[in-house]
Structures are given as C-alpha cells and as structure tokens.
Amino acid sequence: MIATESSLHIDVFLNSCVEQKIPFALYKLPNTAQSKLIVSFEKTEVRKKIDFDECGSGFVMAPYHKENELPYFYKNDFEVDFEDITEIEVPEDLRDLLGISKTNLADKFSLKLKSENTNSDSHKRNVEEVINSIQKGEAKKVVLSRTKHLGEITENNFFRGFQNLSKSNPTGFVSLVNVPWKNQVWLGASPEILVSQDENGMFKTVSLAGTQSAFDKDGNEIRPIDALWSHKEIEEQAFVGRYIINCLKKIRVREFLEEGPKTIKAGNLLHLNTSYTIDTKEINFGNLSSVMLNLLHPTPAVCGMPKDAAEAIIDRIEDYDREFYSGYLGPVNIQNRSQLFVNIRTMKIENGQVFAFAGGGITEDSDPEKEWNETEIKLQTILKSFS
Ligand SMILES: C=C(O[C@H]1C=CC=C(C(=O)O)[C@@H]1O)C(=O)O
After folding, report:
1. CA of 132 to the centre of ligand 1 (A)
2. Residue 33 domain-assigned?
3. What are the φ/ψ torsions at residue 264 (nearest 5 degrees)?
C-alpha cells in the first residue's frame, strides 16, 4: 500500500490506541499469513454472555472465572485485513480520537529480563499438595498454573511482538489484545481451539493435552510422528476427550467425527490432540457452538476433572488471579465464522511490567520436578515475542 495522508504505520497506530485507551484486537488465525485488526469505538466496556446468534460480530476476550466476570466484547467498528503491509488507512474520526504522534516509536519489542532466578520451590510444593488431594480422591486431574514476572519492557513496539510470535508460531492463534479498562495488553499464541463454527455450519472442538519439547537433547527437531508419550500424558489427554464426549451426550449429540489422538507441533512444543467435528446443519442444531461454549469452558485442559472439584482445588492452592489466562478469546461472527481459542501461552503487559502464565495437568502420576520443567518450556513459547 502507498502511504497517503490518512495512512499510518500499523505499529504507530497500535501504540497510540494503547496510549489513548482504545480497545482493539489484532489476530492471526492458525496456518494463515493474514492478520486482522478489530477496533472498537466504544470507550466504556461492553460485557455479555456469548450467544453466537445474538451477540453480533466482533472479538471476545473472556476471563477464566466465568461465574464472577462476563466476557468482554469488542464490536468491530473498524476492521482491517492485512498480510505484508505496514501502513493502514485510518478513517478521519479515528485519527482524531487517537491524536497520533509519529515520532518516538521503538523499532523493537524488548524486555529487560528480571535478574533474579525464579524459585521453583513454591510451584513444586503446590504440585505436591495437588497430588495429595488427588490421592485422597478429591479429583482425578487438576491443571495447576503459575505466573512469572518476566521483567520490564524497555522498547515498546507491540506490533513487532505480534510479528515475532506469528513467525515462531505459524500453527497458533496469535493475538494482541488491548484491554484499556484494566490498563493491560495481552499477547499470546494459543495452540488450542475451544469452539469454532464455520460458514457451512461445521462445528469443531479439540482435546489438547500432554506436553514435550519439540527438540531432543541435542537440539534436533523431533518429528511429530516420532514422538513417544508416557501413560501419564496419554491419560491426561484422554480426560479432556472424555469430558467433551460427556458434554455432547448431555445435549444428545451422537453424530460426531473423532480424529486422533495425533501429535501436533505448537511453537517449541509437541502436544497430543484429538479433534471433534460436527455438521450442525445435518443434525439441525444451529446453536451448538453457544451451547457447547457454555458447557466446555473451562475444559480439563486448563481446569481438571471432575470440574467443580478441580476448580475448588485451583482456587485453594494457586496463589494468584488467572484473570484472562486460561479464559478464551477470538473472533465471533466475522465473515460468518466464529473461532474461539483457549487463552494459553500468553502474557500480560501492565504498567510496562510483563507477566507470563503457564500451567500443566497434574495426575496421581505427576512428578513435581517434571511439572516445573514443563511450565518453564511453556514459558519459552512466549519469550519468542521479544527481539
Ligand atoms: C494449561 C496449559 O496447557 C494446556 C494445554 C496443552 C497441554 C497441557 C499440559 O500438557 O498440561 C495443558 O493442559 C498452558 O500452556 O498453560
């Protein structure tokens, strides 16, 4: 695109939106090169229960705790699709709202890493406590997570962070979301579909769990087809699949296509993945996505089994608020498609400080040391944003 009077560098535009507290969501769908930017002109927060038939088109950002907090909804007042461009045409009214300054924008998204070593003791103690609860019969699987203060942003170019993550995660849902009401920006690359429904009424969800590095100890890439999985990981993933099938049983949906488990690559990691596809037209269940969204979230990939017991254990043992981590996010009713992803492999930037999040499924066979290492390699995914 040729730069004109009303065109702006996308990085200048995004940073100005953050400064001026204008809500936006920038995202790239898995296995595509195209990105989309959605900007809402609504300065006050819009929050609602997500029913795909009623909520209109826009972007959804939902927290983990569904009881306390409704999802945020970003109406698509302004939309741009782009692939290689760096300039976007900005309408006059939005330009005025932004008060753009073209100067002083960093060329990088860089981080001053926190110098002190992270102490693994408290997470390992928490893992042990969860294993004890499981041994006492309180639950079968619990996803225990932690947050890590990575450090302070030194050069602030959010678009560069998004581009870096898109490059290192071609198969992920990469997103950069400004949540001005909380003074937070969230950046992540999710490997996990929660619910999606396309223009032909095809519904999809997945069971994703089990984690290993995509590289062997010599740094060579492991082909997904060669990956070996332990009993613990196979069981951990099966819990999620069983839960999805139980949700379908509850609403009497019997016709679905189950594919997997297969090993998939997500950035620097490998996971076990099974997908479930349903033709909503064939079974005459147009609103399946809304019903399933409500039943599925939070799945045992981020919470546990049985759900209520796992939720209570998480609330008791985790010593921080997950906020949007392990919630869900994505476009709704955009080009007749809705695609919501689980908000994992993510970080928040708040007052220039960066906090990343990672969790792992604990079963009675878990080993605290290995669980700690798993959260560390998951955090590596998000560190790829910086350069
Ligand atoms: C909860 C996370 O990952 C989930 C998704 C895939 C594999 C997982 C696991 O192996 O434990 C988790 O269930 C996270 O990355 O923070």
Report:
1. 21
2. no
3. -125, 155
> pTM for the complete prediction?
0.96
As given in the structure block, the two tokens for residue 213 are: 């590095």
Alpha-carbon separation of residue 177 from 15, 60, 301 (angstroms): 12, 10, 23
339 found inside a domain: yes
The SS3 assignment for 235 reads helix
Has the ipTM of the complex gone over 0.85? yes
241 is a domain residue: yes
Domains: count for the chain: 1
The reported pLDDT for the residue numbered 1 is 42
* Centre of ligand 1 from the C-alpha of residue 315, in Å: 18
Binned at pLDDT 50, 70 and 90, residue 97 comes out as: confident
Is 174 contained in some domain? no
- The pLDDT value recorded for residue 100 is 63
Question: Whose C-alpha lies nearest to ligand 1, atom 1?
Answer: 359
Instruction: Name the amino acid, one letter, at 342.
Output: V
Give, using CA atoms, the residue closest to atom 2 of ligand 1: 359
326 neighbors 300 (Cβ within 8 angstroms): no
Distance CA 306, CA 309 (A): 6
Largest CA distance in the chain: 67
Residue range(s) defining the domain that contains residue 265: 115-147+192-383
* Residue found under tokens 């809705």: 338
> What's the per-residue H, E or C state across 145-178?
EEEEEEEEEEECCHHHHHHHHHHHCCCCEEEEEE
| Residue 339, token pair as written in the block | 């695609």
CATH of the domain at 329: 3.60.120.10
Query: CB under 6 Å to ligand 1: residues?
Result: 143, 145, 192, 208-211, 271, 301-302, 344-345, 358-361, 378
What count of residues does the chain have? 387
